[in-house]
Design goal:
alpha/beta, twelve-stranded mixed β-sheet, 18 helices
Length: 486
């Protein structure tokens, strides 16, 4: 699915009109019909009290069309125009044909469904005055809340214009909008439905990750068919992260997981995951893991992909192991958690590695890599993910709501699976294990990252549907990978 900026959406609409495919009035009517169709498929509108709060621009015109259609389908519709009558020619045309609905500029009443058609993609200023009152009125309504195109108050860059409509459902037209996928705006959108109104798209800014399809396995397969993944992590007292990564790798179809385990963690690790092959090494005095050059060389020969970092700690010995392993890497690498922190002092090592590298930082780790604040990362997620991948030649998986995957060629992908129940320690270790598994099975580095992120989020969504977001654990994500790989 293509993800567009506001300027790209406007260009697509203009091109559709200029080449004679549609008039602006036809586009508005198509939008109204498409939105009304989605609404009526999701909710019963017959005899329901519906308020459509319309602005004075073309988003308001979309609202007029929706109001007319829902009224004809049996809803009791009130159109509220807090900003006055329409100021665009196209919207004014549809405003004239609302004989069966109540029209008022008063922000009052109780409604079963309230539809926000104030601003859409047209907002470029802080909401104030009557518009702010309208947003407040809609937000305090007890009814189902639906936004048309974008929740009012969201700007193109995902920022909030003072305040914003908190939607249960956002119906957006033509394509997914970048603003809907960026913080803090993504908290205001609820479920998102993209309505096709017949406009073709040429230019786009990013792609939303599509659900992967996995081939049926050949009957005459064996464990070597599906690769060996090496995990280096789990300093003393921190083997839980390595256990989660190993379990998720195995649940994701890898043939064999080989884990480097410090001897003080050996019993805990083996009792938790007997399916993994363990390579015990001495626990260093700082609790970390240390490997000799010869050990690393031998391990590289016996694996198809390596994951470095889960539970590794920031010890001196662990950092040395990370750097030595990266320098000696002969197979694709997933760099996560303390593996990322270990190179933050000198990220040039990434540019010297001769194998594909996937890094999976959360915002704080990304901030360390870039030498800036977490808030700067969160305010410019696409910019920093893209630049880091371009400069360092790696695939960057910037975790968070709508995780971003950035490729070395500058391509950007947004994930649309996952939920807030996954915002807990250990979820990232599960993700890194899934990506390791896909790499070892022979998927390309980019597809390993894309598929891993999508499946991880889908398993999290399944877990949340069963347990709720508050009570779910990273191990519940692993437990539902069997349903996510479909």
């Amino acid at each position: 699915m293509k993800v567009l900026t506001v300027s790209q959406i406007r260009a697509a609409e203009e091109n559709a009109v200029l080449n004679g495919t549609f008039s602006y009035a036809e586009l508005m009517l198509n939008a109204g019909r498409a939105a009304a169709d989605i609404i009526t498929k999701k909710y019963n509108v017959v005899a329901k009290r519906v308020a459509v709060v319309c602005g004075s621009g073309n988003n308001g015109g979309d609202g007029f069309c929706i109001a007319d259609i829902l009224s004809k389908l049996g809803a009791f519709v009130t159109v509220i125009t807090p900003l006055g009558t329409p100021k665009t020619e196209t919207a004014a045309k549809f405003f004239k044909f609302l004989p069966s609905v109540t029209v008022t500029d008063e922000l009052c009443g109780e409604y079963d469904i309230i539809i926000d058609a104030l601003f859409g993609i047209g907002l470029d200023r802080t909401i104030a005055g009557r518009a702010a009152e309208a947003v407040d009125f809609m937000n305090i309504s007890s009814g189902i809340k639906i936004a048309i195109d974008l929740p009012s108050g969201i700007m193109e860059n995902g920022k909030i214009a003072g305040k914003a409509f908190m939607a249960d459902l956002t119906i957006t037209f033509i394509a997914m909008k970048m603003a809907l996928l960026l913080p803090p705006a993504s908290d205001y959108c609820g479920d998102i439905e993209v309505a096709d109104i017949g406009v073709s798209v040429k230019d786009f800014e990013a792609l939303a990750i599509e659900a992967p399809s996995f081939k049926k396995r050949a009957k005459n397969s064996h464990k070597g068919t599906f690769g060996t993944g090496l995990i280096i992590g789990g300093s003393y007292g921190m083997c839980g992260a390595e256990i989660l990564a190993a379990k998720s790798a195995l649940r994701s179809g890898i043939g064999l997981v080989k884990s480097i385990v410090v001897d003080k963690n050996y019993s805990a690790f083996c009792s938790s995951i007997p399916e993994a092959v363990t390579v015990p090494v001495k626990t260093e005095t700082d609790g970390g893991i240390a490997l000799t050059d010869e050990q690393i060389e031998n391990l590289m020969v016996s694996c198809d992909a390596v994951l470095i970092g889960p539970g590794m700690s920031g010890s001196f010995s662990a950092k040395q192991t990370v750097v030595k392993t990266l320098n000696a890497a002969k197979v694709p690498v997933v760099l996560d958690a303390d593996g990322i922190n270990a190179i933050a002092f000198d990220i040039s090592i990434l540019r010297r590695i001769k194998v594909p590298v996937i890094i999976t930082p959360h915002p704080a780790e990304m901030a360390r890599l870039c030498g800036i604040s977490v808030s700067e990362i969160q305010n410019n997620r696409v910019k920093y993910a893209r630049n880091f991948s371009l400069v360092n030649g790696v695939i960057t998986v910037l975790k968070g709501a709508n995780t971003i995957v950035a490729a070395p060629d500058g391509s950007i992908y947004f994930n649309t699976t996952g939920n807030a129940g996954m915002a807990t320690g250990g979820s990232g270790d599960v993700l890194s294990g899934i990506i390791l598994s896909l790499l070892a099975q022979g998927f390309s580095p980019l597809n390993s990252a894309l598929y891993g992120v999508f499946v991880h989020g889908r398993a999290g969504d399944i877990a949340a549907s069963m347990l709720g977001e508050i009570s779910m654990l990273p191990s519940d994500i692993i437990a539902n990978l069997n349903k996510a790989f479909k």
